[in-house]
Amino acid sequence: MAQSVDNPSPRVPSEEFVQLFTRTQRPLYLFILAQVGNVHRAEEILQETNLVIWAKLDQFVPNTSFVSWARQIATYEILKHRQRHRREKLTFSDAFLAAVADEVVQLAGEQERRREALEHCLEKLPASDRELIQQRYQPGNSGKELAAHVGRPANSVYQSLGRIRRMLLECIQRRMATEASA
After folding, report:
1. DSSP 1
2. What is the DSSP letter of 7?
3. Cα distance between the two ends of the chain
4. Which of 31, 75, 106, 107 is the most buried (most CB within 10 A)?
5. Residue 79 CB: number of other CB atoms within 10 A?
6. 25 vs 10: CA distance, rounded Å
């Protein structure tokens, strides 16, 4: 079926755009939730934000911060949502919401640095420890199932996981302290 001249085919997003979009969903949801304080409204605003992001995918400038761009769109969607719900009894001032949003952005940066430190520390683990921790945190996996899978007593697996977690925590703390002093 041929496209008419009046209705050109929409631009297909690049794989990179889709990956950035997907990775941004959770931080964007938390950013919105921190400002509206209601899970259902945050989900609604996220959906509205996603529609705008897809509609404006041509406006995203590659090699810039996708998260910042998406947050800006979310901020406008939050403001629109607040305008629609002005009559409700409990509303927060714009100054308060701006302060909360700033705090969320700062915490998100800290969380991202911790995630990067965790990746670095995971790479430094011996292969057997890394494999054990990755298997444990596969969705739906429990410690007992892991113990049965690796043929070890559950207590032994729990002790190993505890040791690995302590090593990771110490590594992350050292890395974060090193970055803070640099």
Report:
1. -
2. S
3. 60
4. 31
5. 13
6. 22
Cα–Cα distance measured from residue 95 to residue 86, given in angstroms and rounded to the nearest whole number: 16
Q: What would the pLDDT profile of 51-106 be if each residue is shown by its tens digit?
A: 999 999 888 888 888 888 999 999 999 988 888 776 665 666 777 777 777 777 77
CATH 1.10.1740.10 in the chain: give the residue spans: 11-91
Architecture of domain 11-91: Orthogonal Bundle (1.10)
Q: What is the pLDDT of residues 119-172, one digit of tens each?
A: 999 999 999 999 998 888 887 778 888 888 889 998 999 999 999 999 999 999
Query: Rg for the chain (alpha carbons), in Å?
Result: 22
Structure tokens at 139: 């969705």
